């Protein structure tokens, strides 16, 4: 029986990977320009990091984690997100002793046991950005500005920035109670999951995709009517800074974000090209996360971009595939050793050159050059070689010229790079 990949786990094939490189390189360039540094963290962590960090009563921890016991009996989990691990690394290596402010990003795969569908996979990639150690609302605006700048740089359009404030440890409990009271009257309308959420984490009902739950929650009290004066002040400042940066946004009081650790500012960027899985990125402030993980308390804010969804939105008219600069069509066995030496030279120069390994006819070699979309073909026959010449054909214009074998590499470098 043929072995296939696991459901929800994708191969990124060579003709797609150029888009990934482009996205990742642009991310590195933009974020480093904003003063962020890359951090690389493990894919496996102790399960406790996520159950404590993300919160027991979240979809992720309740039903989406890949958790298993290793050979020593430790409970380990494939990371479902990166924030908790990044916070752990900041604490574990006491990065704050050098400077409490840490601006970090990481790029890599996340794992969630969700129902696979378009835009939703079990292994998917995120670009994750975090700032630890700053409570000032200016930094909330700064990361949002950077995010939008990045999304525009990769060529996304029709973006909508939605923001909300979720309050804090002091004011959110009161809202939770109000929401609970309101939804209790509508409990009969709620799906089984949401009936449970009503007790454990009623805010999550906003995220439920079931229609009757959406109806039940339509006129629910809004979180930002309940936030305390301190949170209100913080949120007003975030908006002021966003406006000062010339960024348009929409207030979405129903956007609550799925994880427990979020406080105050929450944001999402939605694309209208995506259909139902339309959130490209989400993020927010999480001033309680560190308190859950250890004794060192610190504010934090960040976001995560889903690379698959982002890649699916890249402009269609851009070329991301690296085609060969040159195809060498060689005729006759005598030429092979020469061709081998030439192609080695070219590769050392960074010229993408291909050749035919099979000794096929010129016609079939030209066909292959065409299929590979090589820009030029260097035609080398035994006679030409004897005369110290070769023919260079421009595959786009179909024009040909004779070039001398002497200084060939130099000539090709000038022409092709
Ligand atoms: P959604 O509401 O779509 O489930 P989320 O709130 O769970 O998203 P986050 O945990 O905030 O998402 O992750 C940030 C981004 O990661 C999302 O906006 C999305 O682009 C991407 N993402 C999340 N889950 C998946 C998945 N299962 N497959 C592919 N991309 C995903
Ligand atoms: Mg989700």
Question: How would you summarize the topology of this molecule?
Answer:
Layout: H1 14-33, E1 37-38, E2 44-46, H2 47-53, H3 59-64, E3 66-69, E4 75-78, H4 83-92, H5 95-98, E5 102-111, E6 123-132, H6 137-153, E7 159-165, H7 172-184, H8 192-200, H9 211-217, H10 229-244, E8 250-251, E9 263-271, E10 279-285, H11 289-293, E11 300-306, H12 307-311, E12 326-330, H13 336-348, E13 353-355, H14 362-371, E14 376-380, H15 382-387, E15 389-394, E16 400-404, H16 408-416
Parallel strand pairs: 1-5, 7-8, 12-13, 12-14
Antiparallel strand pairs: 2-4, 3-4, 5-6, 6-11, 7-9, 9-10, 10-11, 14-15, 15-16
Helix pairs in contact: 1-6, 6-10
Characterization of this structure:
Strand 15 and strand 16 (400-404) form a beta hairpin. This protein is α+β, with helices and mostly antiparallel strands and 417 residues long. The chain contains 16 helices and 16 strands. It is elongated. 36% of the residues are buried. Helix 6 runs parallel beside helix 10 (229-244). The structure holds adenosine-5'-triphosphate and magnesium ion. Adenosine-5'-triphosphate (ATP) is lined by residues 81, 112, 114, 119-121, 124, 126, 258, 277, 279-282, 304, 306, 308-309.
């Amino acid at each position: 029986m043929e072995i296939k990949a696991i459901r929800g786990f994708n191969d990124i094939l060579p003709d797609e990977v150029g888009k990934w490189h482009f996205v990742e390189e642009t991310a590195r360039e933009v974020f480093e320009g904003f003063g962020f540094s890359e951090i690389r963290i493990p894919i496996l962590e102790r399960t406790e990091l996520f159950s404590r960090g993300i919160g027991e009563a979240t979809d992720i921890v309740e039903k989406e984690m890949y958790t298993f016991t290793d050979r020593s009996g430790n409970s380990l989990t494939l990371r479902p997100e990166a924030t908790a691990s990044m916070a752990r690394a900041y604490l574990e290596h006491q990065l704050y002793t050098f400077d409490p402010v840490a601006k970090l990003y990481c790029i890599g795969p996340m794992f969630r046991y969700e129902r696979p569908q378009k835009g939703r996979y079990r292994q998917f990639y995120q670009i994750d950005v975090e700032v630890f150690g700053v409570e000032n609302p200016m930094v909330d605006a700064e990361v949002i500005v950077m995010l939008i700048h990045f999304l525009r740089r990769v060529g996304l359009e029709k973006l909508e920035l939605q923001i909300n404030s979720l309050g804090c440890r002091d004011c959110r409990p009161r809202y939770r109670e109000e929401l609970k009271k309101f939804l209790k009257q509508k409990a009969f309308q709620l799906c089984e999951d949401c009936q449970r959420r009503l007790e454990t984490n009623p805010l999550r009902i906003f995220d439920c995709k079931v229609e009757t739950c959406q109806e039940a929650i339509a006129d629910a009290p809004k979180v930002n009517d309940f936030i305390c004066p301190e949170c209100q002040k913080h949120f007003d400042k975030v908006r002021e800074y966003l406006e000062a940066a010339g960024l348009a946004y929409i207030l979405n009081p129903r956007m609550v974000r799925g994880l427990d650790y979020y406080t105050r500012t929450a944001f999402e960027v939605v694309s209208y090209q995506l259909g139902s899985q339309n959130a490209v990125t989400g993020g927010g402030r999480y001033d309680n996360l560190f308190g859950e993980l250890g004794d060192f308390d610190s504010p934090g804010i960040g976001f995560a971009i889903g690379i698959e969804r982002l890649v699916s939105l890249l402009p269609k008219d851009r070329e991301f595939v690296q085609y060969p600069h040159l195809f060498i069509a060689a005729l006759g066995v005598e030429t092979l050793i020469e061709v081998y030496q030439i192609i080695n030279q070219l590769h050392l120069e960074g010229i993408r050159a291909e050749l035919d390994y099979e000794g096929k006819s010129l016609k079939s070699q030209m066909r292959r050059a065409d299929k590979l979309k090589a820009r030029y073909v260097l035609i080398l026959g035994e006679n030409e070689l004897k005369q110290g010449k070769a023919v260079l054909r421009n595959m786009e214009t179909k024009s040909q010229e004779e070039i001398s074998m002497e200084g060939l590499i130099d000539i090709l470098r000038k022409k092709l790079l």
